Amino acid sequence: MPQTPAPFSDAEVERYARHLVLSEIGGPGQQRLAAARVLIVGAGGVGGPAALYLAAAGVGTIGLVDDDTVALSNLQRQILFSDADIGAPKVQAAAARLARTNPHVSVEGHGLRLTPDNAAALIAAHDLVIDGTDDFSTRFAVNAACVAGGKPLVSAALGRWTGQVAVFQGRPCYQCLVPEAPPDAETCARVGVVGALTGVIGAMAALEAIKLITGAGEPLTGRLMLYDGLAGTSRTVRVAADPTCGACSDQAKARDSRAT
After folding, report:
1. Is the pTM of this model over 0.90?
2. CA 55, CA 4: separation in Å to the nearest integer?
3. Pick from 227, 211, 122, 199: nearest CA to 169
4. Are 111 and 94 within 8 A, CB to CB?
5. Are strands 162-168 and 153-159 parallel, antiparallel or unpaired?
């Protein structure tokens, strides 16, 4: 983690009072949050609530990667935005909203699409990554860069009434769970999603990030939490490392080493 920042002001002590009295966070944990740099890929249904809760929690720097603009159809679930933001770049509107949520937090907007060519550079400057995107090519690029850079990845996805959250650090990785994009991959635009579900999954992703930063509790490392909003149930399963994984296996690492 980066160097510990200066002591908190009286206003910050009051702002974070409910964290400071938690034995699992306290002053040292809150300082780690203030020093942390978190990259959120996708400022939509998952990334928006995650960003709001990380800003409220006092994460020092939040990076946002998204090349989209705000549309009317986003407002059913993307709570970072309002009617006044329609047509504006998402990272620009999100940065303004997060600044109103917590002026002590720095927001760095990247109005572009994350690709295999720029993923490593974007991720390198951060301590961990939250992936809330809805396409597999971006997810694979995020995962590969996190594996190569040794960065923890909080991966979240959803559709219709169900969602999932997992944490990957080294092996297993996201590609062990999803070796390749399914031919009939569903998107929220195609199958729909209940708006409140994005808040549930986004908040879970933020919670896992806070646990990773502060060292509190047991993160979902190598585990996948599945939430069924219609049934009101959840379960957690372990993710097995794929010995032939194209991102984190010994063969993949040897291939990447030869390529460099």
Report:
1. yes
2. 18
3. 211
4. no
5. antiparallel
